[in-house]
């Protein structure tokens, strides 16, 4: 089932399952469907809201110029749908948005953040934006043509595979992007910033770092401990920045164990 916020923010989300509320926030260039397998698994214990963040997916037309603005949109969505004290799971950019929401006062039963820390990051997506722009300006008529176009700029097959999931075909048969790539490029610097610090959060929090990823380093671990007093960091072996795609079974095992006190009942 798809729902939208009734407020001016108009975020869209897919909803499945029944039970206490659990919100999933995706990463940069993704959409709510990106973590469908995670949502499907957890929907056996929760009502799962897979939210499309501003400028992404079905929320592509919702503007936001910072992580904090995205967090405000998510909080408005929760308010509109009378969702109180949800469990929140956020990956990458979605993890930053989740942290920002909690640090700015959102009450959450538990917080799970996948492979991101509350710190500022250096730009690292220049080649990705270049590939995205090349596709957008090339009027391509097949997914293979899109892949071939991106392969001229990108060498990582997983990145190409991921971006290919975020294509849509227009009425003219040409492929375009489900996200507003121009707005994201313009606001990219703001999205790299650390979440604005509020009060220290006592929310039970789990941070999952990919063993093969450098997104949660020593500085990141220190920032986590300083802002989230009731937190722990777990390293998932053999995975990089996309644990839900690279080590799904192992990730779900960690999530199931952590969430048992917060509504998980299998």
Automatic annotation (TrEMBL):
InterPro entries: AB_hydrolase_1 (IPR000073), AB_hydrolase_fold (IPR029058). Signal peptide: none annotated. Residues 22-246 form the AB hydrolase-1 domain. Gene3D superfamilies: alpha/beta hydrolase (3.40.50.1820). GO terms for molecular function: acyltransferase activity; hydrolase activity. Keywords: Acyltransferase, Hydrolase, Transferase. This is Putative hydrolase or acyltransferase (Alpha/beta hydrolase superfamily) protein. It comes from Aequoribacter fuscus. The lineage of its organism: Bacteria, Pseudomonadati, Pseudomonadota, Gammaproteobacteria, Cellvibrionales.
């Amino acid at each position: 089932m798809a729902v939208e916020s009734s407020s001016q923010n108009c975020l869209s989300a897919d909803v499945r399952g029944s039970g206490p509320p659990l919100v999933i926030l995706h990463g940069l260039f993704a959409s709510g469907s990106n973590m469908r397998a995670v949502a499907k698994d957890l929907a056996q214990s929760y009502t799962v809201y897979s939210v499309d963040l501003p400028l992404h997916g079905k929320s592509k037309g919702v503007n936001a110029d910072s992580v904090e603005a995205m967090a405000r949109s998510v909080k408005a969505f929760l308010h509109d749908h009378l969702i109180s004290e949800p469990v929140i799971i956020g990956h990458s950019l979605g993890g930053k948005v989740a942290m920002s929401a909690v640090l700015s006062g959102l009450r959450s039963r538990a917080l799970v953040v996948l492979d991101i820390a509350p710190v500022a990051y250096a730009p690292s997506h220049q080649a990705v934006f270049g590939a995205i722009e090349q596709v957008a300006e090339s009027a391509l008529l097949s997914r293979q043509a899109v892949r071939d176009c991106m392969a001229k700029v990108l060498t990582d097959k997983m990145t190409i595979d991921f971006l290919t999931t975020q294509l849509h075909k227009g009425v003219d048969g040409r492929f375009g992007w489900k996200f507003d790539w121009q707005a994201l490029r313009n606001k990219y610097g703001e999205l790299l910033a650390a979440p604005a610090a509020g009060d220290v959060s006592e929310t039970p929090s789990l941070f999952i770092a990919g063993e093969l990823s450098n997104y949660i380093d020593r500085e990141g671990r220190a920032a986590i401990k300083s802002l989230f007093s009731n937190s722990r960091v777990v390293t998932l072996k053999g995975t990089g920045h996309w644990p839900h795609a690279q080590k799904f079974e192992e990730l779900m095992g960690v999530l199931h164990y952590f969430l048992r006190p917060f509504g998980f009942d299998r």
